[in-house]
Specification:
By secondary structure, the chain is mainly β. Helices cover 0% and strands 47% of the residues. The strands form 2 sheets. A 4-stranded antiparallel sheet has the order 1-8-3-6, with no helix packed on it.
Amino acid sequence: MNLALEAPVLSLGAGQLVTLDDACGTRISSRAGTVWITEEGEPRDFVVGPGDAFLVTRPGRTLVQAMDAALVSLRDEDLPCPANEPF
């Protein structure tokens, strides 16, 4: 994923969903509110609360859904990630 801004902040309403394609290496931080995160090919889901962060470590699609009103920042950590291979 190639983000044009240094660390964009998304304002999400409760239940709002954001889809990130090929976001491997992106840090998702909750500044306020709680979000549910799932990565393509990962059997576990993750819940990230205020002040917590999650690093996307898989290629493919990542879903971020606000469990309540949330402010989420995205930052490209520029980490090496595996090639996007089918599962």
